[in-house]
């Protein structure tokens, strides 16, 4: 069974630069102990012959092929633009001259 003391939690908090009150330390200590127990249980089950997985079901590519298609003309793309300059959107300058 994994055990963690209140002093160890306080030390971890100090290393993490997290200010914890006495009440928070009292609350977090058993919670961290439960987390350590859960990790220990997983370590007991996990074996070297079981490959690591990121998803329980194999995934396949669901995207369509990237093929060029019809595109908008500049007039279509800029038709609703509030301001334009030639074939470009005209926007206010934000960086100065």
Q: Kindly report the CATH topology of the domain at 6-45.
A: Histone, subunit A
Total DSSP helices: 3
Uncertain spans: none
| Share of residues in strands | under 5%
How much helix, percentage-wise, in residues? 25-40%
Average pLDDT score: 88
What spatial form do the alpha-carbon principal axes imply? elongated
EC number: 6.3.5.-
GO molecular function: ATP binding; glutaminyl-tRNA synthase (glutamine-hydrolyzing) activity; transferase activity
Subunit structure: Heterotrimer of A, B and C subunits.
InterPro entries: Asp/Glu-ADT_sf_sub_c, GatC
Please, could you describe this protein's structure?
- The structure is a single chain.
- With 97 residues, the protein is mostly helical.
- The chain has a domain of 40 residues: Histone, subunit A (Orthogonal Bundle).
- Helices cover 39% and strands 4% of the residues.
- The chain has 3 helices and 2 strands.
- It has a two-stranded antiparallel ribbon with strand order 1-2.
- The longest helix is centred in the middle third of the chain and has 24 residues.
- The model has no long low-confidence stretch (mean pLDDT 88).
- It is an enzyme of class 6 (ligase).
- Heterotrimer of A, B and C subunits.
- One of its GO terms (molecular function) is glutaminyl-tRNA synthase (glutamine-hydrolyzing) activity.
Q: Descriptors for this entry?
A:
single chain; 97 residues; mainly alpha; Histone, subunit A; two-stranded antiparallel ribbon; 3 helices; 2 strands; elongated; ATP-binding; protein biosynthesis; Aspartyl/glutamyl-tRNA(Asn/Gln) amidotransferase subunit C
């Amino acid at each position: 069974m994994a055990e963690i003391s209140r002093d160890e939690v306080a030390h971890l908090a100090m290393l993490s630069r997290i200010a914890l009150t006495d009440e928070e330390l009292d609350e977090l200590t058993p919670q961290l102990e439960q987390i350590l127990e859960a990790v220990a249980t997983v370590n007991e089950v996990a074996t070297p012959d079981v490959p690591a997985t990121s998803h329980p079901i194999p995934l396949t590519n669901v995207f369509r092929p990237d093929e060029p298609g019809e595109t908008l003309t500049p007039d279509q793309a800029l038709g609703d633009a509030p301001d334009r300059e030639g074939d470009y959107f005209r926007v206010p300058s934000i960086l100065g001259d």
